[in-house]
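User: Structure please.
Assistant: Input sequence and predicted structure:
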Amino acid sequence: KVPYRDETGNVVGVVVFSVDLTERMKVEEALREARDTLESRVAERTRELATALTELRREMAERQRAEDRIGQQQSELAHLQRLRTVEGMTTQIAHEINQPLGAIANFASGLARRLRSESPDLDALATIAMQISQQAMRAAEVVRRLRDLVRKEESARKPCDVEQIV
């Protein structure tokens, strides 16, 4: 409002300016409603994503447990395969062990016979004792390799010469 005055300064009227706020209020109300709708949709989507994340984490944990079980089963299978190999090789292993043990027994028997003689040849006796030692070490090596084979652990992989293996 602005007073309207005549030439003498007396107020003869009032000039009134007005602005119609109806449209602005409608726009503000529409914006509030849009914001509320958007916030509601964001909250709903956030809940959906939280649920999906929880499900994803559960599935990942389940998958990890399955992979752990598979690894454990593969380890068990490898161990069983090694045991099966040992079962198939039992006769050969018995032969490999009996051969040096039989040699030890024969060398020891010969050593005892020579020791009972009237003038034992010390060089020959030392040679026989060395042969007994070598055969005992051979038998021990067979047993060590057998233990390594049946031990329940991951197999060691290393490069090797195929010709030597054959």
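Strands lie at 2-5, 11-15.
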